[in-house]
Amino acid sequence: MTKKILVTGGAGYIGSHTCLLLLEAGFEVVVVDNLCNSSLESLRRVEKLTNQFIRFYKVDLTDFDSLSKVFDDHTFHSVIHFAGLKAVGESAEIPLHYYEQNIGSTINLLKVMQANNCKRFVFSSSATVYGDPASVPITEDFPISATNPYGRTKLFIEEILRDQSKADKDWQIVLLRYFNPVGAHKSGMIGEDPQGIPNNLMPFISQVAVGKRDKLSVFGDDYDTPDGTGVRDYIHVLDLADAHVKSVQKIDQFRGVTTLNLGTGKGVSVLEMVKAFEKGSRKSVAYQIVDRRPGDIAECWADPAKALEVLGWNAKLGLEAMIEDTWRWQSNNPLGYEPSE
Ligand code: NAD
Ligand code: UFG
Prior knowledge:
11 helices
């Protein structure tokens, strides 16, 4: 029988790519999203690309009753929980909203799942839970901490899931700690569509290359790194999506909480990324060096060995593909999903 997966936040950047790969892998997909940071157009395009149907509910996960009704309509094999707010700066300005949205939503979801005896759960965590790591590469047993309210929501949710798993041994939980997701589907039809000024490096660079913004501000060139700029582990969104598919395929073999880093294991600096993007897009990317961004760390990259061992997953797509695919999406859709609405 076809397994049905509930994808919360499925209209968003990582969620839409995951829905596509789930459908291609033969799963049935139901999406719950309040569209606060996304457009239904992403799912329409996934349907076009796969020639398959996605049942969509415009529901806010903080609304317990509406969420319960979704579970009245379906029996889910497992839940992949992407929904959440993710802007680090904004989380420091409106922390209560972040705690209510991210933690409140997750508690509602877990309660509804428990009531419906659905206990397989894949959660979008983040490398942000490693705080300022003492060394790189980072393994899953490094101490966890948080430096901002967004990061604390991820950390608290991880703790809540560990507590729930201790209380009820039937839960099968996978915590996926993403490093820096970038890239887009090869078709150029779905990709990252940030609202307003992008916070993250890759969408900012691609908006400069497409002429939407004047220049990139490079946040500091005096870090203790080879060229002085910040080093991160960029990972193609399709590789990330693939790890979610493998997680739901293998989740029955897991007990308790399984925590996995999703990264490539390679660090790339801001200036290396700018140069590589210029080469891949054949556009120039103007930049200026400015002060460090408060809260940023020098280096963050994964040891991804555990995901290979446990999930049989490793990142297959390199920097060239990440840039080529970002650029195809950005140049085909300079205004994101807007024009087709
Ligand atoms: P996104 O904003 O594109 O997707 C999140 C989706 O959740 C959006 O479609 C939004 O409308 C929806 N949503 C938010 N709050 C909701 C609520 N209360 N009820 C229903 N829907 C709600 O973000 P993304 O980049 O696809 O990230 C997905 C997940 O991965 C998030 O939990 C994020 O914190 C985590 N993550 C992202 C990154 C990254 O850099 N993109 C890194 C690490 C972890
Ligand atoms: N950077 C710039 N200029 C910009 C944006 C970023 O120089 O305009 C630099 C940053 O200083 C950093 C690197 O580019 O050195 C990457 O920055 P991002 O904002 O793209 O990513 P971060 O590593 O800061 O954070 C991201 C997500 C977090 C998540 C973390 C780990 O934004 O939510 O990855 O997964 F927690």
